[in-house]
C-alpha cells in the first residue's frame, strides 16, 4: 500500500492511501457515525458498498456536472440536518469530481465542519480532484466560484474502480494527467517521475499499462504542492494550468457538452499556443504538447463559442487580480510560469 500524507503549516493532515483492492476492506474505515454521499449511477453500480451504510444516512444526488450547484448543495445539507448530523460524524464521498467537490463543501460547512473521507471512483478524481481539499460548486457566473479549502481526513484510492469506466470517461482523466506531466518540474517534488517521458511512450489508452504508477505520481506531485501552499497563495496556482480557459468553455457549455478533462486539454492547448506566439517556448516543445493531447484524443470536440464570450468569462475567473487575467503558460519542458501582463489581443489570438 502506498501512503502519502499532506501535513500543512496549520497542523492539518490528510492521509492518502493507494492500493488495488483497498475498497474490499472499507469496513475498517467506516462506522455508524458515517454519512455516505454518492450519485444515482454509482449507487446502483456499487450497491454492495452503499448497503454497508445506514439507509437513513445515504444521500443520493443526480449524476452530472450540471447538478453541481446550490440546489444540490441545499438538498444534501437539509438531509444531513434532518438526520441530525453531529460534529463527531463523518461524511464519505463516493464518486468523481462532482460528488467529491459537493460532499467536501458540505463537510466544511455543516456544523462549521465535520470529518471527511474521499473515495474517488474516476481517473480524474484519483489523480486530482479528491486530493488537496478544494471543494465547492458552480454558479451561473462560472465554475467553482463558491467553495472552500477543506482537506479530507482520508482519501482511499482503489484503481479497481477504473475497471468500470468506459473509454470516454478514461480519456477525460487523461486531460489532468497531461497537465501534471507539463508542470512536474514546477511542483518542487523530491521524486522525479518523468511523467512527460512516460506518457510519450504510449499510444492512446495503452497508457493503462502504467496507470497505477501514473496515479501515484500525480498524487505525490499534488500533495507536495498542497503541503507547501494549501491556500493557493503562490505555488499552488500552478495546478490551475489550462483551467482559466477550461472553466470559461465549461461555463459557456452549461456544463453539458464538454467534460472537464477535455476542457483542460483545450486550455492547455491554448496556453501552449500563447506561449509559442509570445516566443517563450520553441516550435519543438509546442509540437510535443500538441502531439500528446491529440494522441490521447483530447482535442476532438470543436469549440464554437465566440472568442469575446470566452474572454469575458475568463475575466470572472477566481485567479483574476486587479482586473488582470493571470495565465499559466509553458516556459520549458515540464515547467510553467505565471504571467499577469499578457494583453487581451494575445489571449484572443491563442483561442482556436
Estimate the mean pLDDT confidence. 95
Gap between N and C termini:
44 Å
Number of helices: 13
CATH topology title of the largest domain = Dehydroquinate synthase-like, alpha domain
**Structural shape:** globular
Largest sheet: number of strands, sense, barrel closure:
7 strands, mixed
The CATH architecture designation of the largest domain is: Up-down Bundle
Percent range for β-strand residues = 15-25%
Secondary-structure element sequence? EEEHHEHEHEHEEEHHHHHHHEEH
The helicity comes to: 25-40%
Instruction: Report the structural category.
Output: alpha/beta
Strand elements, count: 11
Domains (count): 2
Rg over C-alpha atoms, rounded to the nearest angstrom: 19 Å
- Order of strands, main sheet, comes to 1-2-9-6-5-3-4
Low-confidence stretches: none
CATH class of the largest domain: Mainly Alpha
Q: CATH homologous superfamily of the largest domain - what is it?
A: Dehydroquinate synthase-like - alpha domain
Amino acid at each position: 500500500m502506498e501512503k502519502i500524507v499532506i501535513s500543512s503549516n496549520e497542523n492539518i493532515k490528510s492521509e492518502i492511501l493507494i492500493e488495488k483492492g483497498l475498497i474490499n476492506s472499507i469496513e475498517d474505515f467506516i462506522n455508524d457515525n458515517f454519512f455516505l454521499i454518492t450519485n444515482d449511477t454509482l449507487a446502483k453500480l456499487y450497491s454492495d458498498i452503499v448497503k454497508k451504510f445506514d439507509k437513513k444516512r445515504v444521500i443520493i444526488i443526480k449524476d452530472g456536472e450540471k447538478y453541481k450547484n446550490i440546489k444540490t448543495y441545499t438538498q444534501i445539507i437539509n438531509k444531513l440536518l434532518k438526520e441530525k448530523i453531529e460534529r463527531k460524524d463523518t461524511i464519505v464521498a463516493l464518486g468523481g469530481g462532482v460528488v467529491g467537490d459537493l460532499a467536501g463543501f458540505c463537510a466544511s460547512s455543516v456544523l462549521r465542519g465535520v470529518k471527511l473521507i474521499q473515495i474517488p471512483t474516476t481517473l480524474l478524481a484519483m489523480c486530482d480532484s479528491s486530493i488537496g481539499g478544494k471543494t465547492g460548486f458552480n454558479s451561473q457566473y462560472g465554475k467553482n466560484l463558491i467553495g472552500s479549502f477543506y482537506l479530507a481526513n482520508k482519501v482511499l484510492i482503489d484503481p479497481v474502480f477504473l475497471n468500470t469506466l468506459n473509454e470516454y470517461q478514461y480519456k477525460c482523466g487523461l486531460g489532468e494527467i497531461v497537465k501534471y506531466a507539463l508542470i512536474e518540474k514546477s511542483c518542487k517534488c523530491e521524486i522525479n517521475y518523468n511523467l512527460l517521458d512516460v506518457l510519450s511512450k504510449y499510444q492512446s489508452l495503452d497508457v493503462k499499462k502504467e496507470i497505477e504508477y501514473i496515479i501515484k505520481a500525480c498524487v505525490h506531485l499534488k500533495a507536495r504542492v498542497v503541503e507547501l501552499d494549501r491556500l493557493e497563495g503562490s505555488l499552488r496556482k500552478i495546478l490551475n494550468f489550462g483551467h482559466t480557459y477550461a472553466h470559461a468553455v465549461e461555463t459557456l457549455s452549461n456544463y453539458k457538452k464538454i467534460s472537464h478533462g477535455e476542457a483542460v486539454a483545450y486550455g492547455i492547448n491554448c496556453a501552449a499556443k500563447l506561449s509559442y506566439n509570445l516566443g517563450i517556448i520553441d516550435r519543438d516543445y509546442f509540437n510535443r504538447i500538441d502531439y500528446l493531447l491529440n494522441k490521447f484524443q483530447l482535442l476532438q470536440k470543436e469549440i464554437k463559442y465566440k472568442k469575446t464570450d470566452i474572454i469575458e468569462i475568463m475575466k470572472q475567473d477566481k485567479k483574476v487580480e486587479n482586473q488582470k487575467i493571470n495565465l499559466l503558460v509553458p516556459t520549458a519542458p515540464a515547467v510553467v510560469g505565471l504571467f499577469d501582463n499578457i494583453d487581451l489581443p494575445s489571449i484572443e489570438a491563442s483561442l482556436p
